[in-house]
Write a structure and sequence with these properties.
It is a single chain. β3, α17 and β4 form a beta-alpha-beta unit. The longest helix has 33 residues. This protein is elongated. With 528 residues, it is an alpha/beta fold. It contains 21 helices and seven strands. 43% of the residues are buried. The chain folds into two domains: 349 residues, no CATH class; 114 residues.
């Protein structure tokens, strides 16, 4: 029939598939589009309510990401990175391990950069939630839109991570798409997806976990080991690595960046995201996600059928990401959504069986007041109340969490002074490695001693890193000489919490305080 089509499908061991059989009205596609747009607006509204509850950005690194995207727009996609010469991000070895992410940020660099970063965070995260809906919808999960909206309520820590102007939201999009194409047998699509993932984020091996989970589930349940998705994803990763703009430095950088975190992350003060949550913290910020996981396991027990490959895959992924969260809190952006996906898959057969048993509803008015419709209305009301309550509670908690972010313009005044009073490209010694993103955001006029990750200097020169640590703690008999001779810096910036360093600087006759505001102080070394 012209202008019409028929689509049937089922929720089965290898995922859903579509069969063209004849005639379903063509408005089905339009209805899906309308549903997707409506959901996207819901996601944007919720995430914007979190994001714009503060003028600041969540976390620190977002300032670096939006700044480098701005410079890429004005100076070229492949920057001469001269801002961290004493680290493995020096000009000769620099690798932009978020290259594609920075390219995608460029449209948000017109106008106020903080506002641009905020809107990028909202839209990228909304895309991640929309991808969850599309996965559930494609798998014929009953109530897929409700499940997707529920993802907004399952974890305050998850929403906080999604609200950062960082790559994790787009990384979640990639992993959900990888799961979708794996479950639907579109394995060849994994090649370009994995290729793009390499250019997007240096955590690209995560896509192999998704594909390997399906292969393992298929092997256990069907007795046949199918490694096609792993192979296609592996091929995409290989091509992405080899054709990366920074090849071959990107290979060495990936090893040097990740390996220290896996072996001795606690040997130096890396960011808190690399350390695990306390159990009480996880219960507080992701309790609903944990409850969802328990609910999904309970649903497996209630189901009268054998667990299918889709559900088993989601369970393996949920447990894998749960283990990763117990090792490092940075993986909180994956555990809650995959716990929800597993729960939706686990309940799908039960909900679908209930729908099938009820059959077509009689439209007679008298039927509207029968016992069954009343129970359905009551159940719908209670479910809606629980969902709305969860959204409200998580919205409030997420707004409070992001509200604790450091002021966006924390080093604006000090950076402006440095840009106006120091030579172009001159080195600035700073007392905190995680101050770099804000300093760089306001002032790309100078170079800095350390930034983004302390291991970048430690790997570059371990003795230099130890010396920097001693100086920042004020443990030096000749502070000014050490800063000038070892680090080549005539200017020093420090926050006002480094009391030992401030005392040592005041006691050094060759260090003069030239600037101070409520956040920072700048010293100039005036030795001849």
């Amino acid at each position: 029939m012209s202008g019409a089509r028929s689509i049937t499908g089922s929720f089965n061991g290898t995922g859903s598939w579509l069969r063209i059989t004849g005639s379903i009205p063509s408005w089905i596609g339009r209805r899906e589009t309308a549903t997707g747009l409506a959901l996207f607006m819901v996601f944007v509204a919720f995430l914007a309510a979190v994001q714009f509850s503060t003028p600041n950005l969540a976390g620190n690194d977002g300032y670096y990401h939006i700044k480098i995207a701005s410079l890429m727009r004005s100076e070229g996609l492949k920057l001469e990175f001269s801002w961290l010469p004493l680290t493995i991000l020096n000009a000769e070895e620099f690798v932009d391990h978020h290259f594609l992410f920075h390219v995608l940020l460029i449209p948000f660099t017109f106008g106020n950069l903080v506002m641009g970063a905020k809107w990028a965070s909202v839209l990228f995260a909304a895309a991640a939630f929309l991808s969850i809906w599309w996965l559930l919808h494609s798998q014929k999960v009953p109530g897929a839109p409700v499940w997707a909206i529920g993802a907004l309520a399952i974890s305050e820590a998850f929403i906080f991570r999604m609200s950062m102007p960082r790559v994790q939201a787009l990384s979640l999009v990639v992993l959900v798409l990888a799961l979708h194409w794996t479950l639907t047998g579109r394995h060849r699509f994994l090649v370009p997806l994995a290729f793009a993932y390499v250019w997007l984020y240096d955590a690209f091996p995560l896509i192999l976990i998704v594909t390997a989970a399906w292969s393992a589930a298929h092997w256990v349940l069907n007795g046949h080991l199918d490694l096609r998705p792993v192979g296609y994803a592996g091929l995409g990763l290989f091509l992405g690595i080899v054709f990366h703009p920074y090849f071959p430095n990107n290979v060495e950088f990936a090893v040097r960046h990740i390996l220290p975190k896996l072996t001795d992350a606690t040997s130096i003060s890396v960011g808190s995201e690399w350390f695990p949550y306390k159990t009480t913290q996880l219960l507080e910020n992701s309790g609903i996600a944990l409850a969802a996981l328990v609910s999904g396991v309970f649903a497996l027990g209630l189901s009268r059928r054998r667990m299918n490959v889709s559900t088993a895959t989601a369970l393996i992924l949920t447990m894998a990401f749960a283990l990763m969260v117990f090792l490092s809190r940075r993986f909180i952006e994956y555990f809650p959504p995959f716990a929800l996906i597993f729960t939706a898959f686990a309940w799908a057969p039960i909900l679908q069986r209930r729908i099938d048993q009820e059959g077509p509803q009689n439209a007679e008015i008298s039927k509207a007041f029968s016992a069954r419709p009343r129970r359905k209305v009551l159940l719908a009301f209670l479910s809606g109340a629980v969902l709305i309550t969860g959204l409200f509670v998580n919205l409030r908690a997420s707004r409070e969490s992001i509200g604790d972010s450091k002021p966006a313009y924390r080093y604006g005044g000090a950076s402006a002074w440095l840009a106006a009073n120091t030579p172009v490209g001159s080195m600035v010694f700073q007392t905190d490695w995680d101050d770099f993103p804000r300093l760089y955001f306001f002032n790309s006029h100078n170079a800095y001693t350390i930034g983004l990750d302390p291991t970048y200097m430690q790997i570059y020169d371990a003795e230099l890193y130890e010396h920097w640590t001693e100086l920042t703690q004020g443990r030096s008999d000749d502070l000014s000489a050490a800063v000038l001779e070892t680090f080549g810096a005539r200017f020093v910036i420090t926050d006002l919490a480094h009391n030992n360093f401030l005392n040592a600087a005041r006691d050094d006759p060759e260090m003069t305080e030239t600037y101070r505001d409520e956040y920072a102080a700048i010293f100039e070394i005036v030795s001849e």
